[in-house]
Amino acid sequence: MTDPIDDVSIGGEMIRLGSFLKYAGLLDSGGDAKEMIIDGLVTVNGDVERRRGRQLHDGDVVEIDGRRVRVRP
Q1: Rounded to whole angstroms, what are the CA distances from 11 to 24, 34, 37, 38, 58?
Q2: pLDDT value of residue 2
Q3: Distance, CA of 31 to CA of 61 (rounded, Å)
Q4: Which CATH number belongs to the domain containing residue 42 in this structure?
Q5: Helices and strands counted in the chain (H then E)
Q6: Are 34 and 52 in contact (CB under 8 A)?
Q7: Which residue range forms the structural domain that includes residue 61?
Q8: For strand 55-57 and strand 14-16, is the pairing parallel, antiparallel, or unpaired?
Q9: How many domains does the structure of the chain reveal?
C-alpha cells in the first residue's frame, strides 16, 4: 500500500518549489525549504530535485519526509 497523496490547490497555473513547500505547510520557512532541497531530501514526481526555483504544474507530486502532496490549480 502506498501513502496517500494530499491535493493542494495553488490558485493558478504554476508555483515554484520553494514557495510550494511553505504554501502547502510542508515546511515553516524559506530557509528550511532551501536546506531540504539542497540536501536532496525533496522529490518531484519521484526524482530528487535540487532547484528551489523548479516550476511545479498541475499533477506534479512533491514528497518530503514521507509526505506526498499533489499540485492542483
Answers
A1: 12, 23, 23, 27, 10
A2: 66
A3: 21
A4: 3.10.290.10
A5: 2, 7
A6: yes
A7: 5-72
A8: antiparallel
A9: 1
